[in-house]
Amino acid sequence: MSPDFLTLHPLDWLVVTVYFGAVIFLGIFHARRKEKTDEDFLIAARKLSLVPFVATLVSTFYGGILGVGEFVYRYGIVSWITQGLFYYLFAAVYAFFLAGKIRNRVHFTLPDQIYDAYGQKAGLLGSLFAFLMVTPAPYVLMIGVLLNLLFGWPLWLAILTGTLFSVVYVFFGGLYSVVKTDVLQFVLMFLGFGLVIPFAWKTLGSPVQILALLPPKHLEPTGYFSFQQILAWGFIALWTIVDPSFYQRCSAARSPRTARTGILISIGFWFLFDMLTLTAGFYARVGFPKIEPLMAYPVLGGAVLPVLARGFFVVGLLATIMSTLDSYTFLSAITLGRDFWGRLTGRLQMAELTLATRWALLVTTVLSFGIAYFFQSVVAIWYLIGSLGIPALFFPLWSSFFPSLKIRASLVVWQIGLSGLLSLVWTVAGLLSQTGGLPRYPLNVEPIYPGLLLSAAFWLWGLWKRAA
Predict the structure, then answer these.
(1) Which of 136, 240, 311, 362 could form a disulfide with 90 if both were Cys (CB 3.0 to 4.6 A apart)?
(2) Alpha carbons 101 and 250: distance in angstroms, whole number
(3) pLDDT at 30 over 60
(4) Which own/partner pairs from 95-100 qualify as long-range (CB within 8 Å, at least 24 positions apart)?
(5) Regarding the domain delimited by 10-31+43-376, which CATH topology (the fold level of the hierarchy) does it fall under?
(6) Residue 214: how many CB atoms within 10 A of its CB?
(7) What is the rounded distance in angstroms from the CA atom of residue 235 to the CA atom of residue 228?
(8) How confident is the model at residue 54 (pLDDT cuts 50, 70, 90)?
(9) C-alpha torsion angle, residues 104, 109, 112, 117 (rounded to 10)
(10) What are residue 48's DSSP bridge partners?
(11) 42: enclosing H helix or E strand
């Protein structure tokens, strides 16, 4: 049995071709609207009903499928705790405390919230860190890896082609196009992994047999991680609170109830998909113990699936990645072009916004390509982005929704800038003094902690000063 992912039957290629055609058709179809307003382009005129809301949120927030496979293959069940459980908890917090507030406001993007609460300087800094949070580098890397496997292209060409194809339709229809394609991709991601599990069971054995053959640490809740590392991943799950795509989707919901209920339903779908991907990762680890971890799912699918089913699995992988890649590239371009450059220069008319967005797309693509090519590990990129962006954004954003928790705008500027800078310095120091290929951070402390502590100190000081 050869785990050759590249061997696709003509029927499999037909499925892949139809998928690409359907994505382009659905994306361009909604772009035929004329005289779009900002509200149309950025938040789909606030008309998202429950079904498309859930489909776009679930698919957008689960794009790191190869990274999930890498994590499960390397570390086992702890991957579900760090990449699943923590996120469910914070998503529930978001649903009950923030979703309704966001929908009732008139803002389009997450940086709008910071501008409104703390002014121009804090908003500009917040825009830069929001841009970092939606930098699509992990998804750029994953789409490049998949296209490299499918077509044998050099990685740089595969990354460039996959990125351009995934976002070309977005700049015609904005969020309308993203949502329309996300509904299709939502169905395909579940279909793809729903197919691979029964065929893996038939080929490699039952899940009970697979669990018995896993390395013991793969089944331990802490696995190969220290408590500090697990806690760090828990804080990185605060990503949910500061993720611009969450904010955008809640702004676009038809009503506050749609936003709140949609997030709670989405948690159930994330759990279901996590169970599928966790099981598939275990099958890959037992069946193919010496492969590159990033290739866990492609190798498994290539080995156990028959003709046609393999084509749908390939499409499922592509759909999972592209649903996030298009959303994050769209948001990063909007954040840089509208929320930073547009606000800085005062150029916020639709025509000027479109031009700025196109330039921002170029910057996003180059930056994402550089990050992806340098790290070549989805998990490492996630950890880097979360460690820098979350300390800078969490306390200012959370407190902005509750007047009793807000502090002076001048303090927030220093809070955002210095907490992000401290985490960056800590990260660079660790990368420059590696041991065995792993960063050795100052005082053996993960970089998210000093940034969060500094941000919390600014916040508490600001509350004390306000009460004094």
Answers:
(1) 240
(2) 9
(3) no
(4) 95/259, 95/260, 95/261, 95/263, 95/264, 96/260, 97/401, 98/241, 98/250, 98/401, 99/250, 99/253, 99/256, 99/259, 99/260, 99/263, 100/256, 100/257, 100/259, 100/260
(5) Sodium/glucose cotransporter (1.20.1730)
(6) 14
(7) 10
(8) very high
(9) 50
(10) 253
(11) helix 38-43
Cα–Cα nearest to 89, from 233, 229, 237, 250: 237
Q: Are 370 and 156 in contact (CB under 8 A)?
A: no
pTM: 0.89
Tokens of 275: 């169970």
Alpha helices in 214-255 (DSSP H): 227-236, 239-242, 244-252
* Contact yes or no for 371/139 (Cβ under 8 A): no
């696709």: which residue's tokens? 8
Look-up of token digits 């998949």: 146
Lowest pLDDT segment from 35-44, 320-329, 392-401: 35-44
Say how many residues make up the chain: 468
**First vs last C-alpha separation in the chain:** 72
pLDDT tens, residue by residue, 187-212: 999 999 999 999 999 999 999 999 99
Alpha-carbon distance of 201 to 280, in angstroms, equals 10
Q: Do the beta carbons of residue 447 and residue 460 sit within 8 Å? A: no
Contact status, residue 410 vs residue 174, Cβ threshold 8 Å? no
